[in-house]
Amino acid sequence: MAYHVQSQNLCVKPTPYSNRLLQVTISKEGVAQFLKEIEIYPVQALEYKSFLRFRVAQILDQICDHQLKPFLERALGDRNAGALLVNPEGINRAEQGDEMVKIATAFVHLIGRSNFDQMTGQYYARWAVLNTDNSDSYLRKPDKPLELHNDGTYVNEVTDYVLMYKIDEQNMEGGDSQLLHLDDWEELDKFYNHHMAKRVMRWAAPPSKNVTQDVYHPVFEADSHAKPVMLYIDQFAQPKDYEEGVYLADLGDSLESSKHKLSFPVPVGQFLLINNLFWLHGRDKFKPHAGLRRELMRQRGYFSFSTNPFSRYKNFKNF
């Protein structure tokens, strides 16, 4: 399906990195109009009153001539696409972080709802990567790559989408975003048809995630069209035996060595929004620098227009 949308405030076209990854631009005038109309809703209001997240989504869609919502549903549900690089023009400075939260909130609440993020206690998470780090996962470690994975592997919530927003960066070299579409992975058939692919395994998070309950699900499932979908992360898998451990180690090596892995910079003020079921994401390591700093924002949640095949493993509550 070809995606070329052009209106007064919305433009969609393929990126140079992949035809599957679409560049979505909201005009500077459209962004300014959106932020003006939602001045009455500070971020705290969006935190306290969850229905206001849908109100700001409605306003953004109106500014985009009601083309944004149907486009997002089509593109994010399309297995041949499912990944967006979004540029809200004119919002690209760290002091505009609250505006970025509002823009991200509007986007994702056109397609579903963001889950509670236990790491920060809100429906979104903001954090910084610095030159030195003593945390208990690779999320904040600049000298290590964040290997390809899916989000939502260790929580009892359906995670259909992931949004990753770059708020700020200083003294940065390296740290490119990385993506891999399942259908472009050379050894998908080998691992999907392996007898371990559907075995229910245990997944557990470190203390910083503020999740105390282990979850259980397989690495692979099939969607409504019998296509493979995935729920995997290297850091939080807890194999119970040799067979599970070797399968997971081989799978991780295969993902990282794929020649179809995309690697590209995301400019400050832009964000990635991907279908979490058939796209994996990660990050390359940074070159050390005493003043290194990158601030990020995350939202992840469920689609309201489709069903997730992993939901039978989850204690998911419909709203």
TrEMBL record:
Gene3D superfamilies recorded: Clavaminate synthase-like
InterPro entries, alphabetized: GlaH, TauD-like_sf
One annotated GO molecular function: 2-oxoglutarate-dependent dioxygenase activity
This protein's UniProt keywords: Dioxygenase, Iron, Metal-binding, Oxidoreductase
Record bears the keyword Thylakoid: no
Statement: the UniProt record of this protein carries the keyword Oxidoreductase: yes
Highest taxon of the lineage: Bacteria
Name this protein carries in UniProt: Carbon starvation induced protein CsiD
Organism of derivation: Helicobacter bizzozeronii (strain CIII-1)
